[in-house]
Batch of 2 targets.
Target 1
Amino acid sequence: MGSGYLKRITFDQNGLVPAIAQQHDSGEVLMMAWMNREAVQETLQTGRVCYWSRSRAALWRKGESSGNIQRLVELRLDCDGDTLLVLVDQTGPACHTGRHNCFFTAIREGSPEIISEVEIPPEEMYGAKEPEA
Amino acid sequence: MGSGYLKRITFDQNGLVPAIAQQHDSGEVLMMAWMNREAVQETLQTGRVCYWSRSRAALWRKGESSGNIQRLVELRLDCDGDTLLVLVDQTGPACHTGRHNCFFTAIREGSPEIISEVEIPPEEMYGAKEPEA
């Protein structure tokens, strides 16, 4: 597969681009993370979603410690190429808290409110391993 | 309305946080833009979505020149508070190209492919005015 598409992506001053992961069939927005060139290429080549972990400064193969992988369905770019939309098929919870997606806090009447339940407790997902991020 | 929720949001070194706009009923991801504290507050206070335009270095009241406003349905934060998901009711196309959403380029077989049509030509949306961004 060619990599001409990389020229269409605008990476920021840190070499990163935000990537929104959306469940391909339900439309649920699961999480937002960052990719560098290598993560984009690996994602397209392997069909498994790989991010760049800013905290660990390393490639982050989603699900490598939790098993909660994201299979790539389609990668899309926005109109100015500085944001990616990654359509995925998510296995298990996407969030390190064990919730299905990361956007479980709503602002209602000016106050944060938790609106979804933990599906799998983190200690069960990760055991003694470091939670992913 | 209190603004205690602001403490839950992690703004980056430029005082900005990425905000993903999603159509509340269909689940369509419309666009990604940035908000500063003032934009978040204005959005919650007025119920109309306001971003921060990095190119113009000014508040960007979505739809102010095109009429294609976003009514706020709910604002959500992700697990570490550094990304917002804005559930909206979008009037007209969200994208400055006149397409309904900004993610109209898919990478297929390693090549970019346009996958959606222009609904309203930009010159019709903006007339002699500057396209929004």
Note: Chain B touches chain A at residues 1-5, 8, 18, 20, 22, 26-29, 31-32, 44, 74-81, 83, 85, 95-97, 99, 102-112, 115, 133 (CB under 8 Å).
Target 2
Amino acid sequence: MIEIVAAKDMELKDILSRDAEKAEDVSQTVDKILENVRLFGDKALREYALQFDGARLEELEVTAEELQAGWEAVDARFRETLALARQNIAAFHEKQVRQNFVMAEQPGVVLGQRYTPIERVGVYVPGGTASYPSTVLMDVVPAKLAGVKEIVMATPPGADGSVDPAILAAAKIAGVDRIFKIGGAGAVAALAYGTESVPRVDKIVGPGNIFVATAKRRVFGLVDIDMVAGPSEILVVADGGCDPAWVAADLLSQAEHDRLASAVLVTDSRPLAEAVAVELKRQAALLPRQEIARASLAAGGRIILTDSIAEAVEIANAIAPEHLELAVEDPFALLPSVKNAGSIFLGRCVPEALGDYFAGPNHTLPTGGTARFSSPLGVDDFVKRSSFLYYSREALGQVADRVIEFAQREGLAAHGRSVAIRFEEKQV
Amino acid sequence: MIEIVAAKDMELKDILSRDAEKAEDVSQTVDKILENVRLFGDKALREYALQFDGARLEELEVTAEELQAGWEAVDARFRETLALARQNIAAFHEKQVRQNFVMAEQPGVVLGQRYTPIERVGVYVPGGTASYPSTVLMDVVPAKLAGVKEIVMATPPGADGSVDPAILAAAKIAGVDRIFKIGGAGAVAALAYGTESVPRVDKIVGPGNIFVATAKRRVFGLVDIDMVAGPSEILVVADGGCDPAWVAADLLSQAEHDRLASAVLVTDSRPLAEAVAVELKRQAALLPRQEIARASLAAGGRIILTDSIAEAVEIANAIAPEHLELAVEDPFALLPSVKNAGSIFLGRCVPEALGDYFAGPNHTLPTGGTARFSSPLGVDDFVKRSSFLYYSREALGQVADRVIEFAQREGLAAHGRSVAIRFEEKQV
């Protein structure tokens, strides 16, 4: 099911399946849907709800009554779990909130930077089997903390026109302002262009299938989008002191996501490598989603043997995994040498699942090696910076020559004149 | 040359020319260039240098001797101006540097967030008439402050195979590590894929023509890119107390950039509006680039009359301009009501040119209304966040039920098992 290879015998680029880009091209279909929603608005959305979700909808928006009914349909225990998760997520993301700054260090000169929230944000939440209340919390809580004025959720309805109560409960706890029963590329179009009933947003976040991802790429620029996530990935760096059963369980928790998911173990211990391979076989057989898990381990699964844990971390940095577990004796000592990873799980008792749902850090993370340059979803994704500057006329006078000289060098005379004219004798 | 319209008689979407997207489609040409550089590396780059720049190159990289020669070819006064600008830009951007944080508020639980610099960054610098040393400083200084290990500059050579000395001097002062004589889509390809002599980077920033912009879009995902900038824009909010000559000069400093540039005045004073219209005519005639300035004023120029300055700011927020001047009596009082703008110039003596070159805030700003959701280039663009979490086994035990419950709700049994297994009796 999974092969053990020595680090020196392999090419890093072969380690993770990074074929998200090569996915089926659906752009023509998506373009048609975008166009129809742009032109026909709600009418098109209703047609797509019938066509794709089998739902005959009058109202596209979830009513207060439906929201309340969904809330009550969820047992008190899970509502409490949702509330605790929200609390942990909020506690972590509050620390990300930025402060404005101002500089007044030279006479007559004030410089600064302000943060303002993005006005209106759309959160896409997939339906069906991939309906994840945790995603609602992870996407909405940072937006609320950022001060976003209105958060609009889009999620496809079931054939009976209803929305999963767990999703509604999570939306209520997270503080979503409006919820629409729209899915796929049509939902992205509605959020980007606006329709009679769906307000146009400034940014669209949230996971989705290839149609949703393609639609997000298409409307990017008109609105902002979060990352277009590829298949989920875990890389576990483990030393010989690990329990192979625990390591295998963590790898499988990634492998069960989908066939493209990648689960990689990097260890300096051959005994552990071999024991984990055995455990993967044994435990996979116990899983309801064992077919998916086996398929993704066969395709994207690897066990890599290194000469040292330091070499294992180098490999992790080169791969830049979405999730990195440091299942070693002293994980905090290794942390400084980690350069590229979305979220880092420290120690032998910190399975990825803890972060996926509950601990507080975001679970929307850079995939496909993009952790080399991008970050987990956070409050930063829901604000923007503006810089500001004030100079007194005297202060401007002191630098006027420099600015004019620069303008002349760049062949932009009017730039220079706009400074010089402030010191000319009045013409009239 | 420019029309005066009342705010109530117009549609906001018509105000700014936002046709950057509709620019000539060059994707086929660009795809071919990307492919050739990917396959043939330096050989392709040399061919394109000959074909597009008329330069016959042996070495693609600028040598230490060339760099020094360029440095000496620039007069001492301008080298000093570059150094002062660098100092101001560094002083402002230092304030943007992020701090890691760690939370240790529950027993056995440590959460945190670390910043790590992007490893290697490519900075594209256009050649020819659009060769701007200020851009070198604005792109490189924040990257240095972010801790980027290697900064690689790409700029097209002249027909004699040389690079503009002012660009080399700026690169030296800013601290660029390596400089290559490569331009256009080929340069973007070289930075994204790497060649025999050009190292592969993790992120590409910097302005460029439609070929460069298209190539950046194409390689986005494989590497990160900064914004793809549209035509430059200024919106001046001015009250009746302004000198029309100054306001006109500021509008013209934007209009001279290119024919697509937009210069908009919004004022509550008809006398000012009329006087500025007259001044625009008069001053345009004095400009070396008067044809460009007249063309862009005719296409994208507007003077908008409002009933109040408050209404003027509302219009500014709806347009979300790249540059916003608040040329009013008390600009600081207006600042809090500004929601969407890239950079804000406060007062009557703060022409945009001051920020373009010298004051310190970045001049790479969101265009085309993207200030609704994006920010000026800054240190944030050269670092990425990673979150980390540690739980002791006891701490995990206390939340295990919640995590397992969540996993079951989402139909991901293996996620739950990865937690449960840490508390099972050993099988062996």
Note: Chain B has a mean pLDDT of 93.
